[in-house]
Request: fold
Amino acid sequence: MLLLTFRAAENRYAIDVARVVEVVPRINLRRLPHAPGFLAGLFDYRGTVVPVVDLGVLLGSESCRDRLSTRIILVNSRPAAPSQPGLPGEAAGADRQATTATSGSQQGEQPRAQRRWLLGLIAEQVSDVSSVKPEQVISSSIQLPQAPYLGAIVEIDHEMVQLIAVDRVLENPLRQSFFGTAADDDRESISAEKAQAGSI
Reply:
């Protein structure tokens, strides 16, 4: 498994590279009045409005500092069933979905259903990609109800690094207000298939 590592709230965290669509510079965001403190704002990514979460604030610390290494990590946050007990929150089939999304970003276009699940994460020192083996996963039974996005802990370079389950960062009703539901994607796919079949 490949992990993109970064820092937030003075600790090191990681995201499965299969979930990463693109890493973009820290840009100005449109603020949302009365939004939760961790929701930094919105930005336009190729015609799609993307909500952006400040991981520093989400993790109970100060906002991520505006450094040269501070980035917005654009991820595919569509929820799915867990694939590995040791890696909670990482989705079955997420590798296939995100790989398609990454390819789409390189080609300048993505399927509409996948674009709708885009989420931006602000983090510091976003640079390293590490390869993790199963034996590097540290068993932990700690689960915090108020932080369902915290996943497994892995050891990288003799340091404990915790995974962020990107499909659990936003919870309902906030998630549904931004993304709708997976069922909406299924309906869109069926409609697209019917339209394509009718044009043949």
Notes: The two ends are 41 Å apart (CA to CA). Residues 22 and 106 are 9 Å apart (CA to CA).
